[in-house]
Amino acid sequence: MTFADLSPLANHLWQSTLCAIVAWLLTLTLRKNRAAVRYWLWLGASAKFLIPFSLLVGAGSQLGWRAAPVIAQPQFSYVMDEIGRPFVFPHQAARLAGERSPSDAFPAILFSVWLCGVAIASVSWFRLWRHIRAIRRTATPLSLNLPIEVLSSSARLEPGVFGIRKPVLLLPQGITDSLTPPQLEAVLAHELCHVRRRDNLTAAIHMVVEAIFWFHPLVWWIRERLVEERERACDEEVLRVISGPEIYAQGILNVCRFYLASPLTSVSGVTGANLKLRIAAIIANRTADGLNFGRKLLLAVAAVAAVAGPIFSGILCAPASHAQSQSESAPRAFEAASIKLTQGGRTRSIEPGRITYLDTALGEFITMAYGLKRYQVSGPDWIMNADRSGRYDLVATTGSPVSADEIKRMLGPLLVERFHLAFHRETRELPVFAMVVAKGGPKFKQPGDGGGALPPTPDGTGGLSYKNWSMATLVDWLSVLPSVGRPVIDRTGIEGRYSFNANLFDLPKDASPLDMKVAIGRSDAGDMLFSTLPEQLGLRLESQKAAIEMLVVDHADKVPVEN
Description:
Elements lengths: L2 H27 L5 H14 L4 H12 L10 H10 L5 H4 L11 H34 L1 E2 L7 E5 L6 E3 L5 E5 L2 H4 L2 H17 L1 H14 L4 H25 L3 H14 L8 E3 L5 H10 L8 H24 L19 E6 L6 E4 L2 E8 H9 L6 E2 L2 H4 L6 E7 L6 H16 L2 E16 L16 E5 L5 E6 L1 H9 L8 E3 L7 E5 L10 H8 L4 H13 L1 E17 L8
Parallel strand pairs: 2-4, 9-16, 11-14
Antiparallel strand pairs: 1-2, 3-4, 3-5, 6-10, 7-8, 8-10, 11-16, 12-13, 13-15
Helix pairs in contact: 1-2, 2-10, 3-13, 4-13, 6-9, 8-10, 8-11, 9-10, 11-12, 14-16
């Protein structure tokens, strides 16, 4: 586990905190309205801790998967992304990023501490549940003609509702003698209100939130708000059906006088929340204002924004599963194009207005069309390592001269059309070799002549001559060697092009280019390159992990559509 693994959690906690702040602002706006409305706002803030926005964004991206291509990321989506995901650790911010450090052990320590907290919370709730369950087992039935089962217990606890699927009302023995009939009726009405509202179910949801996010202070603050608004909501319901608020208030006070208050999260009781404030509110018997049109609209907008906002953002940022242009304009189409199963031959050329690639795997066309390296394409094995049944002859013309880069871009829509190619992009953490400067600095000094990189050739002394090579060219060359088996990334910080010689394979002085190709094709060529070339150049290769942008092929027909 690394700090990068904590990035999604940090962003999720940030998003949940923002939702809690919005819920608090809304409850302030609705403080004169019904408590039930405020309760559901706090419950929504609690539930947000269990629902990462990334799930909604992912759902939106699936909708956008079939939508028309989006060429540039909309400003709205960019702003949403910046606000919603402020925590991005270095190796996720870059395409190929940094090294591991000893501090990477710290996230594992944090995970262990979190797991201990979850275990303690879970055990505490389990012990509490067992305690209440034991009380229920020893309780005796009590006939009060109520719509739920009523049990009388000798335990000194307040009246409360226990259970979610089949709730029962637990009453302390002697409560019918301790309260007057009107007071008992008011207390029972309060408990039945908890049953109708399914408060035990919503309390259980928040208990899960508390167990998982025990370290977040807002979770415990939300708990207090939930209990407060839950009891006020039931008080408001009771005051609408009884004649005297004084009777109801006296009933609650008598329960507190004769029985122990039991502030149990798993039981909905009558004495919860701030009792002094509740009694004052009950005596005042102020009627809560109804929601006017403006406040209903405010709640509707907030609800839609919380759900639809991430989904809409996902739609706008959805990675296209078809050949989508990565630049500001869509590529033009070929005037004529032929793709058939290969008939043999190995001709490959791109001329102004024409491309001819014979005996080529589909994966090679994909890397060329989207400007990727071989290791950045993932999919069925036949796409890259194809036998004769999965290799193709492609000949296409544009009708007028265009650049080689434009022709490569034009391949994308053609592959979609003929192979029904579908793909998505994602970032994966993969093992890589990072090329860095060794102690003492680089040993090559001769700058290139300004031209492009030339293939290595025998230098007449048993070595190879490299002309006009940049570090990017070097790592790309190493990455495609079959014996390497993983990407090679440039972390030297060296810019520009250089010419240098290297003696890698002990070639004879009169070696030919064919001798060089045979040497590079040897099974141990990759090991020799890694052990010899960096050292001779004043470089070295480190085994690391890095975040690599991948193109994942979801579907491709093995037989292309007829021309």
